[in-house]
Design a protein that fits this description.
Number of strands of chain A: 18
Structural class of chain A: alpha/beta
Order of helices and strands of chain A: EEEHEHEHEHEEEEEEEEHEHEHEHEH
Bound molecules: flavin-adenine dinucleotide, adenosine monophosphate
Oligomer: heterodimer
Number of strands of chain B: 13
CATH class of the largest domain in chain A: Alpha Beta
Strand content of chain A: 25-35%
CATH superfamily of the largest domain in chain A: HUPs
Strand content of chain B: 25-35%
Distance between the termini of chain A: 53 Å
Number of domains of chain A: 2
Strand order of the largest sheet of chain B: 9-8-7-10-6-1-4-5-11
Strand order of the largest sheet of chain A: 7-11-6-1-4-5-12
Largest sheet of chain B: 9 strands, mixed
CATH superfamily of chain B: HUPs
Largest interface: A-B, 85 and 80 residues
Low-confidence stretches of chain B: none
Number of domains of chain B: 1
């Protein structure tokens, strides 16, 4: 039997949806579900949200002023102490989980399974390597805790309908004072849907040409209720902020519909959209490799196609 | 700052099309172009710039892997590192094993800053820097896109899902480089010649007293699932019809 602990991700007093996806993964490892650990300075709302997810057995909440910002060096010793007795410790494969979980794994003296994408057994999992060009099956040795980050695009979020208990737990772990949060400068999403949870994503590459031209994509996105993403080239060129980057080193997303404009289709980009339901590519170069990956392709100039599309869908 | 340690991993070049070996025991690496992991090149560039600005006096590079890693270490020396350390190991080196070896070197060398890439583009683990920081019990600043050193501390801007996070860490610390931290320099021929004379020390995992981590075993290698071949449409009305057909925007 497995005993699973999930480290909740939250911000602005809300539970991040990545946690609900970890719960679905946990349910595949063991149908009994999982405990969720919320670390924060004021976590009542987040804990209540976690408690309402199907598959959550208990919510443990550790409230300390030091937990106000998610500093891995501060959170890891608390997680490692509370992990005792658990066979699995899971976190999301978001920048929060990628920062924290390896630090936890090292404190526990075990390897980490990064980007867990499929469960083959309680200790056997699949994960992508080489930017998704190969998939490996890995197994964690018996008698060692499984520490993993869950590739959120591979699991649907667990839905509400649960009613887990919430327990406040203390943490005696000694916390370091060598790291200090200064500020979070928010990116470009604004009021648009979140890139990682949106049903539809409109994405632009170097072909969009400038920051000003990205307005075209924002307008289309707003008309159809989509989030906006970008390729690395578009971010590097300064057209959009970094948090909009999709791909191997940006966000891995799984929208139902992905509309790519002026993106060539480099493997590092494609690895971020493999799990999209439908990929539509618009590119003026008929040879662009994105057409190999797309479900629907249209050769043409994005500056003509976007306004026409906006009119047709509006 | 006295010393900066930079970790360079030898990986299949990012432009190479990855193919599985016919027996599925791994990916084809014979006769394939190998390079410094791109994130590590950025880490080294950052260290060199700190030294050039007079904020550090020495930069040394470290790699763990087969003796061929000397090529990547020589490239690092040609970029401007002062000396190199190779920890020779022919088998697979898991992130925890690498972190344990780096800790041994950290204890010996007492660097003020250790720079790594945020992730190796072969295993895509994104773990080693965080693990080293945990074992060393020092701060970590992962996914750095800006690094400012001010006396005994560093202010680091990190690329996170919500935007840019700024944290301040006391030195010594571990920082992992993201793509936008800088653009690495090109090495010039004379530098390559000069690099041949720079010191390169060879150690072994066993010699360092490092226990290899065996808690995770790779059982199988497979191709990713192929998507079904798509269709091309000729104009916007046809695209809209196809979207409607798939159940969108009806
Ligand atoms: C270690 C590493 C990690 C990386 N991680 C990522 C990542 O996470 N995400 C990512 O995206 N990339 C990543 N990259 C970069 C990747 O290799 C590509 O360089 C990048 O994706 C290219 O972006 P692009 O398609 O926008 O630009 P380009 O390759 O320059 O393509 C632009 C396209 O726009 C088309 N175009 C131009 N004008 C028009 C027009 N008017 N109408 C229609 N089409 C037009 C062109 O035909 C062309 O195909 C990474 C690279 C490395 C080395
Ligand atoms: N064998 C190695 N030799 C040198 N550096 C390494 C090695 N393994 C990992 N690293 C460093 O750790 C970073 C992250 O690697 P990984 O955790 O494997 O994604 C890399 O970008 C390197 O800087």
């Amino acid at each position: 039997m497995s005993k699973i602990l999930i480290i909740a991700e939250h911000g602005d007093g809300r539970l991040n949806q990545s946690t609900a996806r970890c719960v679905s993964c946990a349910l595949q490892i063991d149908g009994a579900g999982a405990d969720v650990l919320v670390l924060g300075d004021d976590c009542a709302t987040v804990a209540a949200e976690a408690a309402s997810l199907q598959g959550v057995a208990r919510v443990l909440s550790v409230q300390r002023p030091e937990n106000a910002a998610p500093l891995a060096a501060v959170l890891a010793p608390q997680v490692a102490a509370l992990a005792a007795g658990y066979s699995h410790v899971l976190g999301p494969s978001t920048t929060f989980g990628k920062d924290l979980m390896p630090r936890v794994a090292a404190l526990l003296g075990v390897a980490q399974v990064s980007d867990l994408m499929a469960v083959e057994g309680p200790r056997r999992f699949r994960r992508p390597v080489y930017a998704g060009n190969a998939i490996v099956t890995v197994e964690v040795a018996e008698g060692r805790p499984v520490v993993a980050t869950v590739r959120t695009a591979s699991f649907k979020p667990s839905t509400a309908g649960g009613a887990a208990s919430i327990e406040s737990v203390g943490s005696a772990a000694a916390l370091p004072g060598h790291s200090r949060f200064v500020e979070l400068r928010r990116g470009g999403g604004g009021a648009r849907p979140d890139l990682q949870t949106a049903r539809v994503v409109v994405s632009g590459g170097r072909g969009v040409g400038s920051e000003a031209n990205f307005t075209l994509l924002y307008q289309l996105a707003d008309k159809i209720g989509a989030a906006v993403g970008a390729s690395r080239a578009a971010v590097d060129a300064g057209y959009v902020p970094n948090d909009m980057q999709v791909g191997q080193t940006g966000k891995i997303i799984a929208p139902e519909l992905y509309l790519a404009f002026g993106i060539s289709g480099a493997i590092q980009h494609l690895t971020g959209i493999k799990d999209a339901g439908l990929i539509v590519a618009i590119n003026k170069d008929p040879e662009a490799s994105i057409f190999q990956a797309a479900d629907i392709g249209l050769v043409g100039d994005l500056f003509e196609i976007i306004p026409a599309l906006e009119r047709a869908l509006g | 700052m006295q010393k900066i340690m930079v970790c360079l991993k030898r990986v299949v070049d990012y432009n190479v099309r990855i193919r599985l070996r016919p027996d599925h025991s791994g990916v084809v690496s014979d006769g394939v172009k190998m390079s410094i992991n791109p994130f590590d090149e950025i880490a080294l560039e950052e260290a060199l710039r700190l030294r050039e600005r007079g904020l550090a006096s020495e930069v040394f590079v470290v790699s763990i892997g087969p003796s061929d890693c000397q090529q990547q270490l020589r490239t690092g020396l040609a970029m401007g590192a002062d000396r190199a350390v190779l920890v020779e190991e022919d088998g697979e080196v898991a992130p925890l094993t690498a972190a344990r070896a780096f800790l041994k070197l950290v204890e010996r060398e007492q660097p003020d800053l250790v720079l790594l890439g945020k992730q190796a583009i072969d295993d895509d683990c994104n773990q080693t820097g965080q693990m080293l920081a945990a074992l060393w019990d020092r701060p970590q600043a992962t996914f750095a896109s800006k690094l400012e050193v001010n006396g005994g501390s560093a202010t680091v801007t990190r690329e996170v899902d919500a935007g840019l996070e700024v944290i301040e860490v006391e030195l010594p610390a571990v920082v992992t480089a993201d793509l936008r931290l800088n653009e690495p320099r090109y090495v010039k021929l004379p530098e390559i010649m000069k690099a041949k004379k720079k010191p390169l020390e060879t150690l072994t995992l066993g010699g360092l007293g490092v226990e290899a981590d065996t808690s995770l075993r790779t059982l199988a290698w497979n191709e990713p699932q192929e998507r079904q071949k798509g269709v091309m449409v000729s104009d916007v009305p046809a695209l809209v019809a196809a979207l409607h057909d798939k159940g969108f925007f009806n």
